[in-house]
Description:
Layout: H1 17-53, H2 61-70, H3 72-101, H4 108-140, H5 145-162, H6 166-172, H7 177-187, H8 192-224, H9 226-260
Amino acid sequence: xxxxxxxxxxxxxxxxxxxxxxxxxxxxxxxxxxxxxxxxxxxxxxxxxxxxxxxxxxxxxxxxxxxxxxxxxxxxxxxxxxxxxxxxxxxxxxxxxxxxxxxxxxxxxxxxxxxxxxxxxxxxxxxxxxxxxxxxxxxxxxxxxxxxxxxxxxxxxxxxxxxxxxxxxxxxxxxxxxxxxxxxxxxxxxxxxxxxxxxxxxxxxxxxxxxxxxxxxxxxxxxxxxxxxxxxxxxxxxxxxxxxxxxxxxxxxxxxxxxxxxxxx
Length: 265
């Protein structure tokens, strides 16, 4: 009787961010014209709709904290709804990048339908992470708010890094939320600091791009004035964030491709 050979786990290999960045440049140069309209539909348009039709964003951090204390739901919804819709673009682009790397040409429409199926699983996975972080913070609440924040913030940063492969993972491997979280954690074993570095650089780049878009938008908005000026003032930062979201989705997909190749399923 023949027995199947036992597969040994692949040896851990260090994540190579430079190689992922090179692959990202190639993917964006080749298929960026396909990715940008997807991001435009699910990242740019929801942001613009929220900024134009939603509540006015507070001008200062103090005003925002006061509004969150007195009437949090309108502000939270204006922040969370576009972010949640934007995840559809992340899933779609990730699926197309990974399938292209695997030698399969997935049309945008097919990738979008697959992304819509994975989207609820991703939302549930993020909700699980949020509940876990809030649970830790609540446990530390009797020690004071400062202690709760000091405990929750490092945990949130660790999870942010180790869950970096979660979106591309769910775009091609639909799993129950907790199973997806376990798989994403396993993918990062041995590369925790590298993932943290990638996540931190991406976050800083997004802030810089958004700030630069805001400065240019404010300048042009003042120049044009009126309704057109306000639209330009809002549209330019949103467009900059949208372009950055495409680069981020493609880069994280290539990070996942590297990690996927060294972990036994």
